[in-house]
Amino acid sequence: MKGALRLGRRRNRTGAGRSRPRGRVRAIVALGLGVLLAGTGVAPAATDAAAPRLDRRELQRTLDEVPAGGVAGAYSAVRAGREHWRGAAGLADLERGRPMRPDMYHRIGSVTKTFVATAVVQQVDLGRIRLDDPVERYLPGLLPDRRITVRMLLNHTSHLGDHDEAIFTGPESIERVRFRRFTPHELVRLGLEVGPSGRPGELPGVYSNTNYIVLGLLLAKVTGMPAERYVTEHVIRRAGLTRTFFPRTPHLPEPHARAYTSAMGSFPLRDFSTYDMSWAGTAGALVSTMDDLNRFFAALGGGRLISAARLAEMRATVPVLPGPGLADLPLDYGLGLVRFTVPCGPVWGHDGGVIGMLTVAAAAEDGTRFVASGINTMWHPEAAAGEEAWRRHLVGAICGTGQAEGDAPAARSAAGIPPRSHTAPWLR
User: Fold this and answer.
1) Which of 140, 153, 159, 414 lies 20 to 30 Å (CA to CA) from residue 59?
2) Active-site residue list
3) Is 180 helix (H, G, I), strand (E, B) or coil?
4) Could you tell me the pTM of the whole model?
5) DSSP alpha helices (H): ranges in 195-276?
């Protein structure tokens, strides 16, 4: 979700008076916009009051470069004021030669977290949840450390272990759990078994999908209905979204693309579009479209879902490490929102990844421009150039195509962060 399959290298976890190395394939249920676009973070340029006009030809040209670089296919939707553009490039199905379409359903991974965080903050607006209350007040006995607060779950400073480390233990596990059904309580138990990454509230935080599984249980307790139902009725429908939902089966509705990965060359490129998403749950299971994602972020920033005061709290960030090997570039993480800097200034959003699909959805801070984009290939060595082209396309889409050509590889190299698809994480 956060970026998708997080294939992790060995690292030490602190806590309980010990540390232990772990090498495994990890589900990235969230690597963060700051990682996907790390190489584009240069000094912000002054912004005009009006959003730059859409250069439709250039947007399509940069999107076409994504499949030319080895990614199967890509789609994007961009809004700038009253202008809208949608585009697609490459193939949705490599075997049948079926082309991508911009209206396809897509697993959005950890962009789900922004929806869930919005739902929790709605309950804060209503006075039913207090951000700095301990989770123990609402879910007694669930977590062993009573110092963990609701805010710590939202901004990943709880230091709960990440359950995906226990689920995705190597390339073979990707197939093994394809149809495995997990319950939220089982996921929390697995996260606790992984062990803490630090002390509650300690900075920097460490990204953990288990935080948002606990938040789903919290929503259910406070609202008296399943978290998925609450998010659907009070976030998705209120935002006017018609093609966004929590899946009930492993199958995606049509039209949808295939979802390809080779787990960094561990096996031939394989389709994982059919997958039981219970392992991601309220941390990353949502299905949506690029148009719906732009509508959601417009509704969130426009005050239709939460109060202005609560939106300001969502945008109050702390440093959070997105994963192993990325300590040199902590994310600016708020309450389910990531802040990062591109040439045109601050941008707010999230990225997401599940097996075979990556997503970025973001909005300019002043609300003048929105972009959502997805690709259907990940963790595939031959797609590295395509992922780099996707980053350039994203910057051009949010800032205007004239600012898309930054020295991304050099910037990322200087930060000590290789593009994620170039090196198998378990080998780093």
Assistant:
1) 414
2) 110
3) coil
4) 0.88
5) 210-223, 227-231
